[in-house]
From TrEMBL:
The name this protein goes by in its record: Glycoside hydrolase family 31 protein
Species assigned in the record: Paenibacillus aurantiacus
SUPFAM superfamilies: (Trans)glycosidases (SSF51445), Glycosyl hydrolase domain (SSF51011)
Pfam families: Glyco_hydro_31_2nd (PF01055), Glyco_hydro_31_3rd (PF21365)
Cross-referenced InterPro entries: Alpha-glycosidase_related, GH, Glyco_hydro_31_C, Glyco_hydro_31_TIM, Glyco_hydro_b
Protein family membership: Belongs to the glycosyl hydrolase 31 family.
Keywords assigned by UniProt, alphabetized: Glycosidase, Hydrolase
PANTHER family the record matches: GLYCOSIDASE FAMILY 31, MYOGENESIS-REGULATING GLYCOSIDASE
Amino acid sequence: MMSNKRIIVDRLDGECWWGGDIEDGIRMPLGEENHARDLIRDGRSNQAVPFLLSSRGRYIWSEEPIRYVFEQGRIEVECDTGRVELREGFGSLREAFRAAASAHFAPDGNMPDPLFFTAPQYNLWIELQYEPTQEKVLRYAEDVLSNGLPPGILMIDDNWMEDYGVWTFRRDRFPDPKAMCRRLHEMGFKVMLWTCPFVSPDNAANFRFLERQDYLLRDAKGEIAIRRWWNGYSAVLDCTNEAAVGWFHGELARLMDEYGIDGFKLDAGDPQFYRADDRSCEPVHPNGHCEAWARVGLRYALNEYRACWKSAGRPLVQRLADKNHSWGADGLASLVPNGLAQGLSGYAFACPDMIGGGQIADVENQPDRQVEQELFVRYAQCSALFPMMQFSAAPWRVLDDQHLAACVAAGELHRALGSEIITLAKHAALTGEPIIRHMAYVFPGQGFERTTDQFMLGDTILAAPVLEQGARSRLVAFPPGTWQGDDGSVVSGPCTREVEAPLARLPWYRLIG
């Protein structure tokens, strides 16, 4: 084992690396091209870990934030406040991952609520934006069922509450939230609410109370820190303060007890909203504040995060960062490589972004709120064999009958394979192993390290979604074995075949021998 504040590692012949920043998944595997990332000063908006994993059976780990550079056949990794270590000799990508998980982010046997894995989720962000109401929420849920989609987890997003940090339903929008939740439960849904660690300084009573209790983050001068985020300027709950977190849990418990809320989407917490010289109950790096916010969600079986630091192995739902309504690397093309990067970084309970993309700017820039229907369908199909899939823009509103039917079929496929996904999720809760797996993870030494447009669900299901506009066929790389397709075809691997993929088809294959 090599260990130091700074290490330099020579890249082995053909060696590929994953990890670090999940938003760089679209660039992975790392190694052949120059690449640098500073996780000490450049916190980002998705999951990250101080961990790099090699196809040649070795890994790099630190307990503290790192920066790393891939350049000229070597890797330089350094840490300002701790040590970096290289561990070798594990033989394969899979064995190196297992060793790292056991040593550094061992799971505790718990997993998120099973409904995440057995039915689509419905996040109302893109459909309702900042205008959710009780009437609109119930209508959306009714439309889910009337259009042939199964009930699942329904997430009421931003602006359901009185103010940021005031976690009480707005009565002008939600006159009877208890009745709303009761009706949603009757229809078969579970209900989650959007929350964040921000507190509006303009809500005098709440802000003054939290300030007196010393529950809010302070800046270097000792003043309450007011931070610019995507919805304006707010104070920030100090999640290193156990009493502050206790207050927050009390607010959420009231929503569960009074109204029947089942869980929470815990948004924000991004490292860029914190400063290295901030004053908090426990002095931590900005990434440490992100990690502290993630710990809040461990109390709830229904949770969702987007920004997380060093939270691998925990029973937290990890959604990919908001994607564009695009075929490119900022949209659909990123789902598989970034999802694979999640798994290889220890984030097994992964969810792609909302079907069609979750960037609000895409909607704001199109007042008629139209979508490219083919792209929407391929988003849904790509998501169907992930551990989770999440609708937002209402497919029955934005699609014609043909495209809607294809999306309903994708949702039905996810539901039909739900018991198998649950089995994989239980395995992940015990071992940390990914649910969707890189081809090189399952089939080492077969040359799949750079295959980023198909993936394995467990060890026996190969998914090959269509990711190119207008494509009605695609090349599929089959590993050794006998593979039976969703269309009834049988393929003997190893080989590469061009397979038909009309709009209604998501090509997937099961290993049968």
